[in-house]
Amino acid sequence: MYEIDDTLKEFIESPVAAILGTASAAGRPHVTYCWGPAVGDDHNSVAFHVNESVATQALADIVETGRVALTVADPITYRSIQLKGRCLGISRASAEDETAAQRHFESFLSVTAVIGDPPGTINNLKRAEPLRRFVFAVEAAFDQTPGPDAGRPL
Q1: What CATH architecture applies to the domain 6-146?
Q2: pTM for the whole thing?
């Protein structure tokens, strides 16, 4: 189990780009944006939310393999972290989850506007539909920031 310290928790819960990565048992990869990443009180798990219509393949992959990768990246500095682990559960998002995901999305939209991304482009990433909540146990963390340390375990 990997323990997330307070500094990494702050980064994960900031207005980062959050990408869910899964793969089928045959190794075929799938990725999608996700919203509202939040570190669990145990500092060993992370929850995040995915639009229901794009969660279908991720759900199938996770049922097959149980494996999850979450990459979070700051759109301004490109600092990137990848967390890998095992899925603990998938459920419909609660009203509180929906609010947290929307707050993250709006913060992300503000940050990307600073670097010149048109809001319309980013708005297309999140749909007005129910979300699925994923929780996973973090087993490993890696620095994925572009540069000579990319891939280094944290």
Answers
A1: Roll (2.30)
A2: 0.92
